[in-house]
Amino acid sequence: MSKKLNAGAMHEPFLLRLTLVFVDSSVLHGADKMTVAYATLGPALSPGWVTSEKRIWGKYGLDVELVYLGGGARVVPALLGGVNTSQVLLEKNRDMFIRFLKGYLEGIRFMIGNKEESLKAFTKYLKNSDPAVNNFLYDDITTRVEKDLRPNPESVRLMLDLIALDHPQAQRVSDKDFWDLSLLDEIQRSGFVQRLYRK
């Protein structure tokens, strides 16, 4: 039986950029199975593509499948209708989400340091074989991506204001309604990110 975790939809910060995460409690080949669905093909999602293609999540005992929903407009009503991260779900699966985030953080590190390998993922997921376009997108996102995944409150508010143009109820949503930084805080305290960039 699968459970649903809403992680929001935003700019660079992963926790708000991935739209829906379905957590399957089953174990496949010794790895916890997760299916991550996303609604847009923006380059801000590229660390996830690279992490998946390089099988980095596997190092953390996870079998992660990325699924493209095809159209962000479909998920906006769900976001505004109250589908949100369940604290119970988070605490029950806390170790798995920690491992998921660690894999994603390592994917960011790999992407920043391995352009040619990362561009293969851009080509695949964007379905664009134009090297000039993919190079531009790569150079753009690697200068903006947050290495520690910390969301920028101003960027979150801007996106909510843009959503409010079509969905006025977004004005009532706080910029902190769709994230829980306790996982990132725990990872930060462990020194994990610092060790990644010392390699």
List keywords for this structure.
10 helices; globular; 199 residues; D-Maltodextrin-Binding Protein, domain 2
Structure description:
It is a single chain. This protein has one domain (2-196): D-Maltodextrin-Binding Protein, domain 2, CATH 3.40.190. α2 (46-53) packs across α6 (115-126) and α5 (94-113) crosses α9 (182-190). The model is unreliable at 1-20 and 78-82 (pLDDT under 50). The protein contains ten helices and four strands, in the order βαββαβαααααααα. A four-stranded mixed β-sheet has the order 1-2-3-4, with helices on one face. The chain has helices at residues 14-17, 46-53, 76-80, 87-92, 94-113, 115-126, 131-144, 153-164, 182-190, 192-196; strands at 2-6, 20-28, 31-38, 62-68. By secondary structure, the protein is of the alpha+beta class. The longest helix is centred in the middle third of the chain and has 20 residues, at 94-113. β3 (31-38), α2 (46-53) and β4 form a beta-alpha-beta unit.
Task: Give the structure's gist in a few sentences.
The protein is an alpha+beta fold and 199 residues long. It has helices at residues 14-17, 46-53, 76-80, 87-92, 94-113, 115-126, 131-144, 153-164, 182-190, 192-196; strands at 2-6, 20-28, 31-38, 62-68.
